[in-house]
Amino acid sequence: MPLGCDSQVSLSEVSCGESTSSCQSLEHGSVPEILIGLLYNATTGRLSAEVIKGSHFKNLAANRPPNTYVKLTLLNSMGQEMSKCKTSTRRGQPNPVYKETFVFQVALFQLSDVTLILSVYNKRSMKRKEMIGWISLGLNSSGEEELRHWTAMKESKGQQVCRWHALLES
Which residues lie below 8 Å from residue 122, measured CB to CB, with a gap of 6+? Predict the structure, then answer.
């Protein structure tokens, strides 16, 4: 039975300020990127993932800006889904601002054994969606940057760590 996750509107004091260096886009040309804020509270066992914003999101089928949302899925060490949730849809924005925070219950002893997958989708019509890209953080991180971000979160003692990540193509 997957646990639901709590969604909360992010508080500006917790949210990553535009001025901090970690909040500058990686500038990979026009590669789709996503800015994520991670925070873990060992006392409460709460993992907070803030989907802050995206850049260079494309509509692959048409030449107009995409309608996007981000799906978050938490997997255990066996790859089974523990929890999932998604942001609301941002319409017609290649550089959408989400500022939505999702909270997952993860005990400290489980923290090294979970994987958080973030998938960005373009909602084309009622039924159809296409994946713009994805990243994963934690046990099965999709790359070095993602692993470094997860490690930085674990070492940050309850402070939010914000980083840009280039999305991998599906």
Answer: 57, 58, 59, 60, 66, 67, 68, 129, 130, 131, 132
DSSP state, residue 9: E
Longest dimension (CA), the chain: 48
DSSP string, 41-65: ETTTTEEEEEEEEEES---SSSSS-
- Tell me how far apart the alpha carbons of residues 50 and 98 are, in angstroms, rounded to a whole number: 9
Look over the chain and give the mean of its residue pLDDT values, rounded to a whole number.
86
* Cα 131 to Cα 13, 54, 69, 118, 170, distances in angstroms: 32, 14, 10, 11, 6
Q: What is the CB neighbour count within 10 angstroms for residue 141? A: 18
d(CA 141, CA 137): 4
pTM above 0.90, yes or no: no
Note the pLDDT tens digit of each residue in 116-152: 999 999 998 777 889 999 999 999 999 999 999 999 9
